[in-house]
Predict the 3D structure of the following.
Amino acid sequence: MNDLTVGDYLISRLQALGVRHVFGVPGDYVLSFYALLQSREMRIVNTCDEQGAGFAADAYARMRGLGVVCVTYCVGGLKVANTTAEAFAEKSPVVIISGSPGMKERDKNPLLHHKVRDFDTQLKIFEQITAASTVLADAQTAQKEIDRVLDAALRFKRPVYIEIPRDMVAAPCILHHRTADHRTGSDPDALQEALTEAVAMMNAARKPVILADVEVHRFGLQEMLLRLAERANIPIASTILGKSVVGEEHSLYLGVYEGAMGREEVRRYVEESDCVLLMGVFMTDVNLGIYTARLELGRAIYATSEKLTIRFHTYENVTLQDFLAGLVEAPLLRHEPGEFPHPEPAVEFTAQGTRNVTVRRLFQCLNAFLTRDMVVIADVGDALFGAADLLIRRHTEFLGPAYYTSMGFAVPAGIGAQLANPELRPLVLVGDGAFQMTGMELSTAVRYGLSPIVVVLNNRGYGTERQMQEGPYNDILNWNYHRLPEILGAGRGFLVETEEQLDQALISAERHTESFCILDVQMDPMDRSPALERLTERLSKRL
Amino acid sequence: MNDLTVGDYLISRLQALGVRHVFGVPGDYVLSFYALLQSREMRIVNTCDEQGAGFAADAYARMRGLGVVCVTYCVGGLKVANTTAEAFAEKSPVVIISGSPGMKERDKNPLLHHKVRDFDTQLKIFEQITAASTVLADAQTAQKEIDRVLDAALRFKRPVYIEIPRDMVAAPCILHHRTADHRTGSDPDALQEALTEAVAMMNAARKPVILADVEVHRFGLQEMLLRLAERANIPIASTILGKSVVGEEHSLYLGVYEGAMGREEVRRYVEESDCVLLMGVFMTDVNLGIYTARLELGRAIYATSEKLTIRFHTYENVTLQDFLAGLVEAPLLRHEPGEFPHPEPAVEFTAQGTRNVTVRRLFQCLNAFLTRDMVVIADVGDALFGAADLLIRRHTEFLGPAYYTSMGFAVPAGIGAQLANPELRPLVLVGDGAFQMTGMELSTAVRYGLSPIVVVLNNRGYGTERQMQEGPYNDILNWNYHRLPEILGAGRGFLVETEEQLDQALISAERHTESFCILDVQMDPMDRSPALERLTERLSKRL
């Protein structure tokens, strides 16, 4: 082990945690680390712009439990400030590795290229949007620092920042370092008391319901949650951010709950429940249908990774995992929920010839098209709101930035998702506005032999905003999206105006598995999904 | 004045400072401010992605003295963290205006969409990369805050941050506010002593020389500097970051000085001088040819906006403007510099038929093509290094991020530059790697009727890095750049492999003034300019 370097140690730890791909753009301060990644069989996925790498790594983290973006100092790092903020807000464990000027180059504070104000400017920025951060300035402490920071990523499911000065990549580590496991469990007394109280409440309830969200995905608790639901025979709803937390064909699955934004029967069922078990729920405005949700906390058991609240009191030091595991083993009564809502089944789509495609019909068609071997990735806007009603077959087959809502997520996320799980083909739903931000990352898909099906909801502008306040700034230039294969030298493009064309394009796309397919679906600028109609009505009151 | 609102005041101050365009992407937290901009005849330039808006506003600021980017909260703001850092590093006064959740929405710290950690997370980030920042949380203080922050932008020529909560846009201002002018002059005694010393040193010198940099541009001192040079008959060199600080056909102009990276005769002349007048120079690694420059401070008068240093002592409170103005009026002797170097004249380019285009020949051809009615914008890499030898006819007709060196600057900067001065046609020089980051902002050029000529130096990868360390991560996918007009529905594209084709394409581009033109100039992957050859030799020693 004598010749183990700081760079080696970092890579070996990431590999031990299941990471096989690193997303980024090279630059001189990180070039030696890139060479090391290459030699250690870590696959470098070079995106067009760092922003694409950030979104791709976020999706990879959501699917695989950890993602890595690796960039150069400031001009690379600051381009992923926004994607890192998204990962922070929506709890996605992304490791940002940034090269930087060597420690020996920093004497006398010279004006080295890419430096902004001080050498630690980038660090200070990332401290605001990560759970832990470090500069590997000293080989003596580098291993401990790497352990500490990666541990925080796994524990809090938040992004972390590791800066590696270029002269530290090959610096030899100290010997005999042992990777520590800092994971902390629950306080057993608090856990026991909480379980007793929760079980009594659930058993006394006439009509309990589970509302599950994103933390169930992040902590990999989907199967355990399902066991709980099945044992006690309790229906499950999910939030929009948590969508696909269970396979949506499951007999206990109700649908997406999102206050007045969602389907009325789901809203009524959840809000009329006398015991709501909120599992890993983020109380965000979007999840709560812009605060149209009426969840009475006096009837709620609210478990998150940060705290557990039953009615109006709180237990500290009870982890989400332990609490859920405890419930699964507890003496829960089996309920008889009687009749309850289910998602609309996916019915066969019969194209109505030359009828223009509407948002509603597009999603009906996609619902029929979806298979168990696809992962749906929705960008912000009606791509996301409309997708709430898609029937997702297996858990964690739906990704959407439904809280942070940063446009431009979906196309690069499709790249991260397919690399994270090559058995799933990405179905990317994206508005034309969001596509113009990051859609050219299809180039990255071509480069790495990926095959997303990209559906551009082309309404020639920012449709969500049109619903709130009309203005010329909501219109954008029309692109011939379906002709992008001619620019990129690969892929298949389809111009879709009618239902017939939509149907045919999807059939062709399904068969064309060698490369990406892009459907330019032309829609009326003022068309919208029912969910968007309800949402924008709410939002426009707050302008 | 009774119905003047906070939003009105901000817009009227910007207009008074010469701003006519605002670059950005709308979003719900900034939508009401967008509507106000629209109604106040401020032209909104909606780019594809916020990154493009950031670079465009930076270029606009460099040309016009102030630029504005206006975005929504976090998902918009954090996308311009990098472009703001560039503006900070290279002293460009860009105002970042960000909408944000209304003050009344913030009670109980709810999870509103786009929020990362706390409501002030974005503010804290921008504090790191701006000269001043404010949240307009109170109508009583908003005008003073706006004045303070805009004043800092003008004084320090750095970016500033103004956050406007959406419920403050229409909040009424207080009456009787008077816009204060905080500009501070020099300490007259210090100024007098410094001038006396500098004049004595210059008059005693046998072979004085002026080296001028970016601050001369930023403070609009180009004409004054020229008067100084002409009065004392002293030759002028510029740095690469400061290039075009004087019209380069001027008889006193030496060329670009950049240590061992630059032309040998310029290096020798500057370094052999017995009195170097450094005017607004940034001592950056790139400006100094990666520290191959040998400028003896014992013979230097070093004036910047922050301090004035003569030999090894420093004067505080002497502004660059006052010092330069004082020198122009001072009893300076007229020197007889004798023979000194001049830039290579632009000679007619005779295309050698089917010969492939090399980097060297490309720049010779562009040199012949350039006119007084063009502004050259160079992206990072050989686009920038090769451009050092282009002969720029008038001052401030060259823009390049030659210190911060963030890739992706040039195409959006071309948009900002042409809007800042519609009489100049942008000639945008960009590598294929940088083009893939932001090149689709050509869409914005189409939308606003702009006509840049974009030359893609297509060597199928990151050429600068190939020179430092070869690896597959330096190769990128080839795009058919010349076919982008088919995607965007406007513009003209040219595939250029030979000198003949280059010549013909430039002739056509010059004539086609209705829209953008793009030249896909195919180059050998290992070809490079002589400057890049010298630079990468230096850089690769530090990996």
